[in-house]
Amino acid sequence: FRPGTDKEQNTAMPLDDACCCCFSSAPPQNAKGARGQMYEKFHQFDNEWDIRMCDAPCKAPCCCLIGAFPCTWCCTQYTMRKRVLEAQEPGSGLKNYVCGQGYLPKCCCGIWNPGHCGESSCPSCCLCCEAVCCPGLVITGSRLLAMDMYQIQPDPCDNRLIRFNNCLQLLSCICWILAFIDGTFQECARIIDCVADCVFFSTAGCMVAQ
After folding, report:
1. What is the rounded CA–CA span in Å between residue 128 and residue 79?
2. Tens of pLDDT along 140-184?
3. How many C-beta atoms surround the C-beta of residue 181 within 10 A?
């Protein structure tokens, strides 16, 4: 368990509460289906992260910078996934690699079907493609696998930051749709898109450090 959670230390408002106070830190409620059961399972675990995402920039700044830098993204995510898989089964390399590590079910009429995308024949190539084409999925897959392996529950701070990031990505999509309909929204869409990208890579950097 992470030390230092006594009442005196929790009397002040944490940084994540001040920055993302509009977003709930509670676990998903009434989640349905296989994904809902998966989220409920994580919240029943007993262990905690050594570093919360909102503490990562101060406690592990170098890892945060490397994980958030777009130019090193592919190499960082490749290394992270391989390290988690090696921790799960030492000496296995990428033998147990699956796109998203199976945490995202098949979709797009079966076009995306984890475990049947050529991972067994060319795992390195598939992992590189996942890191480039699905940046959110590659970091989430590694993180969820680590949480499964060590029975780590999500931190309320993490929930809030992830929801903040998801909200900005959705807002960016909405703005670009409006920009296609009405050209006057293009400048707004570019600004929101830039902010959303910065928040995404910052959040990803915190996950890498964690």
Report:
1. 10
2. 999 999 999 999 988 888 888 888 999 999 999 999 999 999 988
3. 9
CA 16 centroid distance within chain: 16
pLDDT at 12: 43
Residue 87 and residue 149 in contact, taking contact as beta carbons nearer than 8 Å = yes
> How many degrees, rounded to 5, is the angle at CA 66 between CA 61 and CA 70?
135
First and final C-alpha spacing in the chain: 14
Q: Which amino acid appears at position 50 of this protein?
A: D
Token pair of 203 as six digits: 């959040």
Using alpha carbons, select from 118, 140, 135 the residue that is nearest to residue 74: 135
pTM metric for this prediction: 0.80
**Tens-place pLDDT, residues 31-56:** 666 666 677 788 888 899 999 898 99
Separation of alpha carbons 103 and 145, rounded Å: 9
